[in-house]
Structure formats: structure tokens, C-alpha cells
Specification:
Elements (H helix, E strand, L loop, with lengths): L1 H18 L6 H6 L16 E6 L6 E3 L4 E3 L12 E3 L2 E8 L2 E8 L1 E2 L3 E6 L7 E4 L17 E2 L8 E3 L3 E3 L2 E6 L4 E2 L2 E6 L15 H14 L14 E9 L4 E8 L2 E10 L5 H10 E7 L7 E4 H4 L9 E2 L3 E3 L4 E4 L3 E3 L2 E8 L5 E10 L10 E7 L13 E8 L2 E11 L11 E5 L7 E2 L3 H4 L10 E2 L3 E6 L5 E7 L5 E3 L2 E7 L9 E10 L31 E2 L13 E5 L11 E5 L7 E5 L6 E11 L5 E6 L2 E8 L6 E2 L3 E8 L5 E8 L9 E10 L2
Parallel strand pairs: 20-27
Antiparallel strand pairs: 1-15, 2-3, 4-5, 5-13, 6-11, 6-12, 6-15, 7-14, 8-9, 8-13, 10-11, 16-26, 17-25, 18-23, 18-24, 18-26, 19-20, 19-25, 21-22, 22-23, 27-37, 28-36, 29-34, 29-35, 29-37, 30-31, 30-36, 32-33, 33-34, 38-48, 39-40, 40-48, 41-47, 42-45, 42-46, 42-48, 43-44, 43-47
Length: 676
């Protein structure tokens, strides 16, 4: 009898443990928006973060042939799950779960409805634009909800929307195009509340507190970390040497890292210095560092950019870099700085650490690694994927810093983000474009800084750019493996070059394949190719300063379309209708007979024109329509006689090809060759 009772007691305890579930209140979920220590927790079985988006459904994986089909398809505005009458279903998942982020490039006046937990009436029924305009409660907190600005053309809303059993999102006519909903599905028996638009005072207060913390980026948000200690240290790192910043022993966690050094004012000198200096952190006496990075990239900054303050990292106006990532360790931590530059570097560090508040066995180790083109997919059908991170084990992906060099211009960021979790063949997160992943839209070159995403440098998409995205509430858990990719359409030989700093937590003993990168691969690769210049040509762009027209005209860089334009530039004129004119004096002073040739741009929105010199037509009418942007052949405009003084070159719109969208005009160069 005693044995039977003991057996039943054991079975009862086992069953109770099996059904035990986490329970979250709305304030608990809101706290995840600013709780950096929470990210270190290894994920429970069954937790998954995914993305519902409008990616091009032509991209698919064919299991029968093990083939990725149309993997670079790029019509990313119209993808949906299905139609229901006149409505479009954008998301349909089973819970429990929570939406952490919604984004759009074109949120319109049509309604988007959110149905939760099987209800027949929507919990939220608003014009899609009203999710983002800051006027409708509870979507009103300025550090959680953003409307497009001149610097960042994108709609973002980070207000958590939890659901107990299911979530279905439906869009009506006129809702817009392009959407993303990032959400987490919790383990099956997790208890979460069903979101309500009319929040209780407690729930509303939690959003207010999150908004306050996110409005104070630059301060450590981890207010409930146990009291610890701070070590301040000034060090000088000799050329070609390393120096220890801190040696921590026993069990604990780094809660803040700051460093201040004198940065050169010249942007290029900043980039070189911050790539020559490195930071390395090893945990628990291991020989391979879990953190290895050029110093600037570790803080989301390469050089020559604006100061910025995001939630986990930033650069303060006084020149202090900060990192508030939570970094637990079991037996100790060793931090050192390397200097691969030619001169000593002096800096002041501050390292804050604290005792752990939970078992180290439940916590991952913080990893941050920098690379260029490491572990790219080898399959041809995976093009144009570019690997951000590949790792094996259990952990969470928490952030991306992407630095790029795109000297010839053109929009570099059409590529979608793709996250493959635990060996899945098709990514559970499939985005709609690189700028969408980084929180903006429409290839905006503006600079902006927000708690979870920022673009702190962009040279008009024709040079360096720096973009950051932090996954805080929407960290991406994995149990066995993780691969993050972002599509890269422009090849290295264009050149368009990427360098990534990736941030993640990984269980002790997990596989991190990234090692240190030589300084020769970290600096100096951003060289601007020299353009071809047609000998003795009058460059179109050189005429902008003296030209006259009632319509707008400007210099335009053309290298995004190829390297064939002389000087990589053209004169671009934007007439709107037949009969409009453009004229400019040519820098030719010597009278005589000349042979006139020219090259023009042809494009889908270009018109038909008549050219003249000093009121006399030269050459036939020229139709500059083409199905894609390219440079015309050299056009012979005949022999002309010039008198003393600068001749006036005039362009008149005659009309347009039936297939053309507009009447635009582009001049690469004119060339006057003395006639025999």
C-alpha cells in the first residue's frame, strides 16, 4: 500500500510538472520591450518568433526537388495568405502569442481588422494609417509608434498585442501595400491576456513606463539588476599590441560597458581607427572569444556618422560609446582591446557587473562577431542570399549592424531578410526589403535614430551607410540552429560591399564558427573606382550651372546603371509636356567648322527631342525611349559652323514614344571635333 501511494505521488508530481505553464500579464509582456537581461534566457521548447509579411509568393521551396524557386523574386507589396471575399488575410496564426511590431511602407485609409481568439468581432478595426499616426489609443506613445518623416519613410508600431488562442489580421479595400507583423508564439500552455483597445490603468501605465524608458536611450534600462560594482580604467594600447580592460572572476553578469577615446574629426580617419581597434571578450576561461569585433562596429558605429542613442548601444554627444547588453558568465570574463594601428591609442573604460538573479544554467552567453562575406550560401538557387549569421545550439538572435560601401550609387537594399530557425527549409521570417527590416522605407538616405532601429550614416546611397536593428521584445529564439540572411542584389565587383556585426545569445558549448578578421580585410577596401571620361568631351553635368529652363534639371549619377557614362554622371532634365525647352551656352569660343557628336541616356520614361545650335536645328529628332535604362550609341549630329562667342545649345520636346511613361531627357556629353 505504501509503495502504491509513493508511486501515485510520483506520478501526480510528474503530471503537475508537465502541465505547469508560464503566465504573463500585459505589463509582463510590455516589460519585455526594455528588459535586456530577459534576452539572455535560453528559450523554452515551443517558443517561436516569426514574421507575417507581403513578400513575393513566387519565392518558394520545392521539397520534391529540393530546389529554391524564384528565390530573388522582388514584387514584395502584394503577398497575402489568401482572399476572403473582398478582404485580404495578412496573418492567421494559432496562439498563445503576441504581436510585437507592425510596419508598412504605404499604410492607407482602408481598414485593417485584428480578430483575436476566435472572436467574430474584431478587437481592432481601424484605417491602417491610424495604427501609426499616434492619435488612437493605445497607439499613441511617441517612442513606440512612428509615422514617416523626411528622414525615415516608414510606418512602425511596437505596441504589444497579445492573444490567448489565435490571431487573424484582415485588410479591406484601400488599406495600402507592404506589411510586416512580427510575432511570437509561446509554448502551448502559456497563459497570456487577450488584448483590448481600452486598456486598464495598470496596463496603460506599463506602456507609459516603456515609452519613458525608450525616450531615455543612453541610460541603462535595466533598473532591476541587483546592486553590483563598476570598474573604471584608463589604458593605452601600443601599436600592434593588446591590453586587458577587465578580468572578472566567479559567477555574474556584465551589465554595462562604456569607452571614451579621442576620435579624429575626419570621417575617414575615424573609420580607419575604429576598425584598427578591436574588442575581445571570453567567457569562463575559454580560449576562443565569444565577442570579437572592430571597436566601432561593436557599438553600432563605423565612423563619420551622427551620434545616436538606441536602447542597447549608442554614441553619446560627449564621445562616450555605451553598450547595455546583458552578458552573464559562470566562471569569469576577460575583456581586452587590440590595436592594429601604427600609433598608441589611449581610452577610458567603465565595466559594470552584478550578481546573477537566476541560475546560470538557464542563461546563454552573449556573442557578437564581425565579418565580411563569411559562410555565404554555396547553392546557386539560394542567390541572392547574403549570410548575416550561422550558428548551432540554443539561443536568441538579438541584433544586426550592417555597414555597406556602395560608391557607384543605386539602391543597394532591395534584398529581403530571411531567418531560418532550427533547420527549416523555408524561413519563418521572410521580409520585404532591407530598409524595411531596418525600420524605414523607399530607400530613404536620411539619418534617424530610434530605440530599436536607426540609420546613422548614409551618403545619399552613393558611399558608406550604417544601419542598426535590435530584436528586443521580438528576439528570435532557436533550439538547434539559426541562420540569418539578407538578400544582396549588387555584387562585390560593382562594387557593393557589406560588413556585418551580429549579436546573439548561445548556450554554453554551442557552435560559433566566426573568428578574428585581419586588419588588412577590415580597412582600406572602400576605394572609389575611377570613372571613364570621354576625351575632349563637354560633359553634360558640367552644363548644369549655366543652363536655363522653367522645368527642373540637375546632375545625376548614373553608375547604378553601369559604368559606361562618361564621368559616371549626366545632365538630367525633367520636362512634362511637348514644346518645353532647355538651353545652355557651350564653352566653345573659337570660330570654325566642327563635327558634332553626342551620347544620350535612353530609358522607359524619356521623350523625343529636337536639338539646335544658335537657332539652327542639328541632326534629326531623337527618340530616347528604351525599355530599360542604358546609354545610346554615339550619335552623329553633322557638321556645323560656329561664329565667335559661346553657341547656345537648345533642346525642345517634340513628343514621346507611345510606350514611354514621360518626357524626360538625359545628356551624357557633347563633343565638338574641328573639321578638316
Amino acid at each position: 500500500m505504501v509503495i502504491r501511494l509513493l508511486f501515485l505521488t510520483f506520478v501526480g508530481a510528474f503530471l503537475c510538472g508537465a502541465v505547469k505553464a508560464d503566465a504573463y500579464t500585459y505589463p509582463d509582456l510590455v516589460k519585455r520591450m526594455t528588459d535586456l537581461p530577459e534576452l539572455a534566457k535560453l528559450p523554452p521548447q515551443g517558443e517561436k518568433t516569426s514574421l507575417a509579411s507581403s513578400y513575393d509568393r513566387d519565392s518558394r521551396y520545392d521539397a520534391a526537388s529540393d530546389t529554391y524557386v524564384k528565390w530573388g523574386a522582388n514584387d514584395d507589396g502584394g503577398g497575402i495568405i489568401r482572399k476572403e471575399g473582398d478582404d485580404r488575410v495578412l496573418m492567421d496564426v494559432q496562439g498563445p502569442g503576441c504581436i510585437w511590431r507592425m510596419w508598412s511602407a504605404t499604410a492607407g485609409a482602408g481598414h485593417v481588422k485584428i480578430f483575436l481568439d476566435g472572436a467574430t468581432a474584431p478587437t481592432v478595426d481601424l484605417p491602417f494609417s491610424s495604427y501609426f499616426d499616434g492619435k488612437t489609443e493605445p497607439f499613441t506613445r511617441p517612442n513606440l509608434v512612428y509615422i514617416p518623416s523626411k528622414a525615415a519613410n516608414g510606418f512602425d508600431n511596437y505596441t504589444p498585442i497579445p492573444f490567448r488562442k489565435s490571431c487573424k489580421i484582415v485588410a479591406g479595400k484601400g488599406w495600402g501595400n507592404y506589411y510586416q507583423f512580427t510575432y511570437t508564439q509561446f509554448p502551448e500552455r502559456t497563459v497570456v491576456p487577450t488584448f483590448k483597445m481600452d486598456l486598464s490603468p495598470t496596463d496603460s501605465g506599463a506602456l507609459d513606463q516603456a515609452d519613458k524608458i525608450l525616450g531615455q536611450c543612453g541610460q541603462n534600462p535595466a533598473v532591476d539588476i541587483s546592486e553590483g560594482q563598476t570598474e573604471n580604467k584608463a589604458i593605452t594600447v601600443d601599436a600592434g599590441k593588446t591590453a586587458a580592460v577587465s578580468d572578472l572572476s566567479g559567477e555574474g553578469a556584465i551589465t554595462a560597458l562604456t569607452v571614451k577615446l579621442d576620435l579624429p574629426k575626419d570621417p575617414e580617419e575615424q573609420r580607419v581607427l575604429l576598425r584598427q581597434l578591436t574588442i575581445s571578450i571570453t567567457w569562463d576561461g575559454e580560449t576562443a572569444p565569444a565577442v570579437w569585433s572592430p571597436l566601432g562596429d561593436f557599438f553600432g558605429y563605423v565612423g563619420g556618422a551622427d551620434t545616436f542613442q538606441s536602447l542597447p548601444v549608442g554614441l553619446l554627444d560627449d564621445g562616450t560609446f555605451y553598450s547595455y547588453w546583458y552578458m552573464p558568465y559562470a566562471k569569469g570574463a576577460h575583456i581586452e582591446v587590440g590595436n592594429d594601428g601604427p600609433a598608441p591609442a589611449t581610452m577610458t573604460w567603465s565595466v559594470a557587473s552584478a550578481a546573477l538573479t537566476q541560475s546560470i544554467a538557464k542563461l546563454g552567453r552573449f556573442h557578437a562577431k564581425w565579418h565580411r562575406d563569411a559562410f555565404l550560401p554555396t547553392r546557386a538557387d539560394r542567390m541572392p542570399d547574403w549570410t548575416l549569421l550561422t550558428t548551432q545550439g540554443s539561443g536568441r538572435y538579438v541584433g544586426t549592424h550592417l555597414h555597406g560601401w556602395n560608391p557607384l550609387g543605386g539602391w543597394w537594399g532591395e534584398g529581403d531578410d530571411k531567418f531560418f530557425v532550427d533547420g527549416e527549409k523555408f524561413p519563418s521570417s521572410f521580409g520585404t526589403g532591407s530598409e524595411d527590416y531596418f525600420g524605414y522605407a523607399w530607400s530613404s538616405a536620411g539619418h534617424f535614430s530610434r530605440p530599436y532601429h536607426n540609420q546613422i550614416l548614409n551618403e545619399n546611397n552613393e558611399g558608406h551607410f550604417d544601419d542598426n536593428r535590435w530584436h528586443i521584445s521580438d528576439s528570435v529564439p532557436f533550439s538547434t540552429s539559426f541562420e540569418a540572411d539578407i538578400e544582396k542584389y549588387f555584387p562585390n565587383d560593382k562594387p557593393t560591399l557589406y560588413a556585418a556585426e551580429v549579436f546573439w545569445y548561445l548556450n554554453a558549448g554551442g557552435t560559433d564558427p566566426y573568428g578574428p578578421v585581419p586588419v588588412t580585410d577590415r580597412v582600406g577596401y572602400w576605394t572609389r573606382p575611377e570613372a571613364y571620361h570621354e576625351p575632349d568631351a563637354i560633359e553634360g553635368e558640367s552644363l548644369v550651372a549655366t543652363a536655363k529652363s522653367e522645368q527642373s534639371f540637375s546632375e545625376q549619377r548614373m553608375s547604378a546603371y553601369g559604368r559606361q557614362w562618361s564621368g559616371d554622371l549626366q545632365l538630367s532634365w525633367q520636362p512634362t509636356q511637348k514644346g518645353q525647352t532647355f538651353e545652355v551656352p557651350l564653352p566653345v569660343q573659337k570660330a570654325g567648322k566642327y563635327h558634332l557628336t553626342a551620347r544620350f541616356t535612353k530609358a522607359p520614361d524619356y521623350g523625343i527631342f529636337q536639338l539646335s545650335l544658335n537657332g539652327t536645328d542639328v541632326g534629326p529628332t531623337i527618340d530616347l525611349y528604351a525599355s530599360h535604362v542604358n546609354l545610346s550609341d554615339v550619335i552623329d549630329l553633322g557638321e556645323i559652323t560656329l561664329l565667335d562667342g559661346a553657341p547656345v545649345f537648345k533642346v525642345t520636346v517634340i513628343g514621346k514614344n507611345d510606350d514611354s511613361h514621360a518626357h524626360l531627357f538625359g545628356l551624357d556629353y557633347l563633343k565638338l571635333t574641328p573639321a578638316p
